[in-house]
Every structure is written in structure tokens, then in C-alpha cells.
């Protein structure tokens, strides 16, 4: 007679979200409460860095393979609500085409236009969201910057008084 419940080892082996070395588990860690902090999520992502041209969870959002609450979109920028907000308003802005921009440290002169468009889109979204009293734009870069998804993205935070220093 077999048990209705699988053993933990078998369940882990059959579930890529629970297998610690799974790329899906690393990406999912950014969006779940299983990680104790952004720092832990960033360290997990840095431990298994993907090739620069490999798809990220943001590519899947751009391609509509994963749902997101989109608040702004134009031909080059997509903005959507963070599913683990750190402020009353927490929106991620991403370039629709990564073009090697896994992080700000990878920016080259050819990226100046998209970098400017991301910042201008952040201003438009802040106005749309009613953040007249101010907001913060954050770019995490690399393991020490707590970057957990290697596709350049801006965090637009607002709706409360921000603290200083931030980190």
C-alpha cells in the first residue's frame, strides 16, 4: 500500500521550485517570502549566475508568459508593480530589450538612450501614481548591491517618508 504523501526527498526532486540548485528556485526566491531578505535573494542569484543573454523572469513578463500588474508601457520600457513591495508604491521599470544590460555596471555608451528613457518613464509613472511629495529610484547592481535579477531594472518607491541612509 503506497502512501498518499510523497517522501520529502521525492517531492523535492520532482518539484523544481523546491530543489535548491534549480534556476527556477533561484529566480522564484526573489518573489517569495522564503528568503529572509533581499540580500539573501541576491546572494542566491549570484551563486548561480546565468549567461548574460539567458532569459530572466523579467523577459517572461515582457513576453506575457508570467502575469504582472503593468502600470506603464511604451515601445522600450515596461513598468509593473513589485509583488513584494517595500513601500506603498513599489514599481519596477525594465528595458524591453536587455541588450547586454544585466546591471548598471554593464552599461556602455550605446545604452545612454535607454538609461535616460528608464529615468524619464520613472518620472511619468511617479506622476501617474500621485507621488507629488517625492519618491526614490533605486538600481541594485551586483551581489553587494543586492541585485537578484540580472536584467537591469529600476525600483520606483514612494507613498511614505524614505529613510536615510538607505542601506
TrEMBL record:
Motif segment (Histidine triad motif): 151-155
Secretion signal, residue range per the UniProt entry: none
Sections of the chain in a coiled coil: none
Protein name: HIT domain-containing protein
UniProt cross-references to SUPFAM superfamilies, sorted A to Z: HIT-like (SSF54197)
Location of the HIT domain: 57-167
Pfam families per the UniProt record, alphabetical: HIT
CDD domains with a match to the protein in the record: PKCI_related
Catalytic center residues: 153 (tele-amp-histidine intermediate)
Gene Ontology molecular function terms on file: adenylylsulfatase activity
Amino acid at each position: 500500500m503506497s502512501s498518499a504523501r510523497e517522501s520529502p526527498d521525492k517531492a523535492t526532486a520532482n518539484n523544481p521550485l523546491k530543489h535548491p540548485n534549480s534556476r527556477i528556485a533561484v529566480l522564484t526566491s526573489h518573489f517569495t517570502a522564503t528568503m529572509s531578505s533581499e540580500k539573501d535573494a541576491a546572494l542566491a542569484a549570484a551563486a548561480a549566475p546565468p549567461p548574460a543573454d539567458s532569459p530572466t523572469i523579467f523577459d517572461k513578463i515582457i513576453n506575457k508568459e508570467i502575469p504582472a500588474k503593468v502600470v506603464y508601457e511604451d515601445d522600450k520600457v515596461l513598468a509593473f508593480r513589485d509583488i513584494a513591495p517595500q513601500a506603498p508604491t513599489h514599481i519596477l521599470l525594465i528595458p524591453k530589450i536587455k541588450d547586454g544590460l544585466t546591471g548598471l555596471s554593464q552599461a556602455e555608451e550605446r545604452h545612454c538612450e535607454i538609461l535616460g528613457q528608464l529615468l524619464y518613464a520613472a518620472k511619468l509613472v511617479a506622476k501617474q501614481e500621485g507621488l507629488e511629495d517625492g519618491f526614490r529610484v533605486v538600481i541594485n547592481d551586483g551581489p553587494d548591491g543586492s541585485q537578484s535579477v540580472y536584467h537591469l531594472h529600476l525600483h520606483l518607491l514612494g507613498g511614505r517618508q524614505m529613510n536615510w541612509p538607505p542601506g
